[in-house]
Design brief:
298 residues; alpha+beta; Formiminotransferase-cyclodeaminase, Chain B, domain 1; Alpha-Beta Plaits; globular; folic acid binding; Formiminotransferase_C_sf
Length: 298
């Protein structure tokens, strides 16, 4: 049995009733199992995680995008997280008995279906990218919803599928195939956004920081603090604790400190065990020393 994970991000993080309707639309597909969903009011964004077979995840993802196009109006949306569409991104991740190439095919099929049936422009990125300049999601999404119309007038930024202009209500959607990533945030005890942005620049790979890390500074207005918000693209190359410790060191330069961390959505157990070993100094620790792992062994 093949297992594929899909982690769509929707531009709504305040009204849980909307996300519940989207989750219901996704989970209505036979063979789909929704593992988790979370809302973030400051980012005004939600992340849904579900798994299934090739056919079921494609149908589930389409159902979610369709329901989001009905319920989310991008002309009224604002939030701290970059976004360009009601259904902002839809990545497919190979988990078991499936290849990256097969996930790319699913991404292409979904992109075509969204473009044709929902009249929403679709850009392929990461492993599914149709050109090298489209691999990086940050470049695809640069300009966000407000800049889409002008951006799409450029020949190199015409969508892979769908109309050649933004959908006024739904914007555009980015679809991909990629390896698992961890959405991991570090909170600071200051409300100075410029500090979070400076630290994020030094932490992310593009700023000369850590391998496989994307980072930006954002405000958490409800808590009156700021955050270094990260995508850990490959936790085996840069573990979570290394990002935390670099941020902690950078924060000291500005007289601030780390007050907490946050995982959005699901996280591989191995990523947490790596940090457990580091902070507790456990020597020669093995994964089968975890009780639950031993219980579930065949």
């Amino acid at each position: 049995m093949s297992i594929i994970q899909c982690v769509p991000n929707f531009s709504e993080g305040k009204d849980e009733s909307i996300i519940k309707e989207i989750v219901t639309a996704i989970s209505s597909v036979e063979g789909v199992k929704v593992l988790d969903y979370s809302l973030d009011a400051d980012h005004n964004r939600s992340v849904v995680t579900f798994v299934g077979s090739k056919d079921s995840v494609l149908e589930g993802a389409f159902n979610g995008a369709k329901k989001a196009s009905e319920l989310i109006d991008m002309t009224k949306h604002s939030g701290e997280h970059p976004r360009m569409g009601a259904t902002d991104v839809i990545p497919f991740i190979p988990i078991k008995n499936v290849t990256m190439e097969e996930c790319v095919q699913i991404a292409e099929s979904l992109g075509k279906k969204i473009g044709n049936e929902l009249d929403i422009p679709v850009f392929l990125y990461e492993n599914a990218a149709s050109a090298s300049h489209r691999k990086n999601l940050a470049k695809v999404r640069k300009g966000e919803y407000e800049g889409l119309e002008e951006k799409m007038q450029q020949s190199k930024w015409q969508p892979d599928f769908g109309p050649q202009k933004p959908n006024l209500k739904s914007g555009a959607t980015a679809v991909s195939a990629r390896m698992p990533l961890i959405a991991f945030n570090v909170n600071l005890n200051t409300n100075d956004l410029s500090i979070a942005k400076k630290i994020a620049k030094n932490v992310r790979l593009g700023g000369g920081g850590l391998h496989s890390v994307k980072a930006m500074g954002v405000e958490l207005k409800e808590r009156n603090i700021v955050q270094v918000s990260m995508n850990m693209v490959n936790f085996k190359k840069t573990p979570l604790y290394r990002a935390v410790e670099l941020i902690r060191a950078e924060a000291k330069r500005y007289g601030v400190s780390v007050v907490g961390t946050e995982v959005i959505g699901l996280v591989p157990q191995e990523a947490l065990i790596d940090s457990l070993e580091y902070y507790m100094g456990i020597e020669e620790f093995k994964h089968d020393q975890i009780l639950e792992n031993r219980l579930y062994q065949d």
